[in-house]
Amino acid sequence: MADPSRDLGMQYLYEKQQHRSQADKAGDRQQQQQQQRQGSPVLAMAPLPQSNDASRDWGPAQGNLETVKMALDALKGLIMDAVFLDEEAYTNSATLQLYQQRLQAQQRRILQLEGEVEALRVESGRQAEALVQQRAQTRAAEARMQELQQELDNNAVVFDMHYNELLLKGEEIERLKSVIEGLGGTG
């Protein structure tokens, strides 16, 4: 990029025009009004300052122009290389582009759904494991319940046997009492 302190055009554009007096400005305004009445266009700019070494002062500006020229040549080459299509080819390519956009959107949706399916599969697996674990606990509880029921049945049988034995002992005691009373009454 050109150095603005060496580029006279840049200096002119960005320089504050403090050297002009109010009288000069008023005179310029009157001249502009007079030329506007006559219908001629007016440029309100002061003349460019002159320099002894014009090639040195305009060198950066010429460099800028060369850069612009190269950029324009490159742009012209790109435009020349551009493909121009007729209406049918354009319509076909636009339709193809639309299908490609839809395909990409559907592929993104498929990936999203695959992620959801994977999450649901993991959740389902976790729930299946929890169900298997709960069934195992249920089987263990049923086995424990059967053990307790068997123990209760065994205790009932033992209780029934003890009850029957107590009844037999009670009957024997009653018989012995009647024998003792019979012996006590005879003697």
Q: Mean of residue pLDDT? A: 79
What value does the Rg take, in angstroms?
Answer: 58 Å
Largest sheet: none
Low-confidence segments, given as residue ranges, are 16-23, 39-43
Q: What is the string of SSEs from the N terminus onward?
A: HHHH
What spatial form do the alpha-carbon principal axes imply?
rod-shaped
The total count of strands amounts to 0
Structural class: mainly alpha
Q: Helical stretch count?
A: 4
Subunit arrangement of the protein: single chain
Keywords: Coiled coil
Coiled coil: 96-151
Region (Disordered): 1-61
Biased composition (Low complexity): 29-38
Report on the structure:
There is one protein chain. This protein is an all-alpha fold and 187 residues long. It has a domain at 1-13 and 60-82. 81% of the residues lie in helices and 0% in strands. The protein has helices at residues 8-14, 22-38, 54-81, 87-186. It starts with 7 loop residues before the first helix and ends with a helix.
